[in-house]
Amino acid sequence: MSSATGGGDSSSIAIVLDPSDPLATEPPVRWAVSHLADVLAGAGVTVRTDADSEADLVVNVGGAGDTGQSAGPEAFALSRPDGGEGRVGVAGADARGLAYGVLELADRARFTGDVLGELRATTPESQQAATPVRSILRTFTSDVEDKPWFYDREFWTDYLTELAVNRVNRFQLALGMQYNYGHHPATDNYFCFPYPFLLDVPGFDVRAGNVPDDERDRNLETLRFISDETKRRGMHFQLGLWNHAFDQGEGSDPLYPVTGVTPQNHATYSAAALSQLLNECPSIDGLTMRVHYEGGIPEPNHEEFWQTVMTAVGEVGRPIELDMHAKGVDQALVDIAQGTGLPVIVSAKYWAEHQGLPYHQTTIRERERATKEAGSGLMAITAFQRRFTRYGYGDFLREGSDLGLLFRIWPGTQKVLLWGDPELAAGYGRLGTFAGARGIELCEPLTFKGRKNTGEEGGRDPYADGSLRMGRDVWKKYLYTYRLWGRLLYNPDAQPDEWRRFLRAEYGNAAGAVEQALAPASRVLPLVTVVHGLGASNNGYWPEIYLNMPIAGGPNADHYERDTAKPPTFGGVSAFDPSMFYRVGEYADDAIAGRRDGRYTPLDVADWLDGLADEAERNLATATGQAADPDAPVFRRLAVDVKVQVGLGRFFAGKSRAGVAYSLYERTRDAQHLGDAVAAYRQARDVWAGIVEETREVYRPDLTFGDLRSEHGHWADRLPAIEEDLANLERLHETARAEKNTPVKANLTVPRSARPRFTHPAPAGFSRGEDIAIDLVPSEASFDGHVVCHYRHVNQGEDFETAEMRWNGARYQVTVPGSYTDSDFALMYYFTIHDAGGDAWISPGLEDSLARQPYHLLRQRIH
Fold this sequence. Notes:
Layout: E1 12-17, H1 27-42, E2 46-48, E3 57-61, E4 76-79, E5 87-92, H2 95-110, H3 115-120, E6 125-127, E7 133-140, H4 143-151, H5 153-165, E8 170-175, E9 207-208, H6 213-232, E10 236-241, E11 258-259, H7 266-280, E12 286-289, H8 302-314, E13 321-325, H9 331-338, E14 344-349, E15 404-409, H10 422-431, E16 439-443, H11 479-490, H12 497-507, H13 511-531, H14 557-560, H15 584-593, H16 602-626, H17 633-668, H18 671-695, E17 703-704, E18 712-713, H19 715-739, E19 758-759, E20 772-778, E21 785-793, E22 801-804, E23 806-807, E24 812-816, H20 818-821, E25 827-835, E26 840-843, E27 856-858
Parallel strand pairs: 1-2, 1-3, 3-5, 7-8, 7-16, 8-10, 10-12, 12-13, 13-14, 14-15, 15-16
Antiparallel strand pairs: 4-5, 4-6, 9-11, 17-18, 19-20, 20-24, 21-22, 21-25, 23-24, 25-26, 25-27
């Protein structure tokens, strides 16, 4: 990465800590000041500490400034205390906020050729955190690919600094995520049951085979260093303990067999080891634990194990956060955790194990609903009554609860390609605190690389082209991603210069066009994920390198069968939000009937995808023409990734149109529809072939994120199945034309009205047990139709209630009764507007940016 500096600058800047402000001596502030000094010195600026020196500029750090304690946690302000160019003031509401103010000056200095001029031009401003928790998760999943960065202290210094500068305030180092107990026999189990890889626990003869004592001790020393450096930068350090299985189960052949642990001493050893680990690493602020069966503790009678382990954490003597991965968590586990007296949160998935759009699912898929029967066996809780906690917030967002909730964005959608969209990032910043949630943790790019013993020497770098390889610095490909996530979660209304200064340094005159190319390209896969909810697990579904679901029957249907709707065909796949988006087959039914039910259709989505692809391609062409060197590695990496995402948008758009046409043929037996399907699918196939050519010599021929066919490979590997599916359609078309069947008569004119605007005067809130009056006002009094209100508690285990709204001559009205609002939950609702001619649409719905919440949220007034 390049950064502009004013090498040889003869100016001097004094950095002065306000002696009257105790925040100025806090460790995060001192680190931030040292970072600012390093940036200035690197630009050739002389750094002084004496306020009375003859410096060209004085930076005053500390003092009340314009923030004050009322500004909220992590707030900061920049000011001009003397009104002139000689002094810049930095104030903070707390130590982290004060550090952010200093780091903002450092970031400006880093990306300018005129440091003194840039800092002298500072204008008064203040910012505060919109999202309390802004977290990045990095996981150790491969001994071959991950040991190099784990032990590399220079990597950690650069990486953690980048996170802190961009206002990430929580970092999780996750251990034991490479296997899900009960699903995958284990081989590469390094850190999978972490304690013997880190500690020799007195009183227990427990070892990890093939791990010498000096390596075990080095692991602990490294973990201590990482946690200390994270804390020094003002970030919360979270240790992820995702696996407590000392024996990975039937069929496992671990490279590092654990000995000395038995079912009888498992809990007591784990408790003793965890207590020792927390004392050895005093900078560990919290623990994330997978407490359902996939973490290695079978669910029948698991309370005894977790009672023992969590009690030990509570006795360590400092406020360590307990974060339970939300899947399968029930009240018994919550009671155990809260019984320790420690702060407790649950961390829920955001759009299953994928990255979707910023809003939260209106409705979960049918497959995620709780079952009525009581469970038994390994998955007694998760797979039955608590099934709906697998892929969303479940029923954890209770009003007034002291149980916090954090959303985690899993790496199923996009693992390799560069992502960067300020609009969606800001959307997450606005909606990551939905209904009182604490914020978001992002599984960073390349998460799960080399998982399940698929790692190879040097394999973390995904490039085959030697000129594009980055080696140990491959994480820097995603600097723009980290910048957008951190800064726009902190402040969704941040000034664009906060990310554009980086783009200018990286891409020069092409920066503006690069931003406008990458942003719409980055919207493609989140939209595809939401609409084409083929598989909730990141193991089985990877939209970025899509394992094709057949339209006409063929390869891969068996792969998806266990995690998708019936039938396992493209037309039968449910959206991850079935309240907002039609299935392909459902839309065909309504198209034949000449009606809409209000949801977005596959053809609406295809138009969105084509529009995003066109916008990205047009701006990439502009950027290529403006780039100083289009063949430079930094530009080529960007250009290839944008082109691939453009291709993916056009592929899924074409396939959606082909799927609709095929579904119409199934219902009408009209061969013309098959012809339309073949034509659209041929175009989609050609686009995919273009992606293959674009990536063939660029990326490794086998990008490994696991051992399932959907977890590794290359775009080229997926082409044969697409071609076979297309060939099946072509054969069907030839047969249908030869048979000359009499088609079923159908009116395929799907109604579309003028769609007048409606306004909704949203209530300010409600008190539990009171009636809520909800109004919707059309812009045209002559609107001829009816309106349905859909409402439910903010509880994904419940169905929506529907009520026909009454027209009173000026507006539509409905009352949600107090008997319904008498609950622990906020209320969410939306409207379906039905035109008399058969058209229908949802309000408020999504806008073209795809960053808006398509329903209204109404919180309780807690007295």
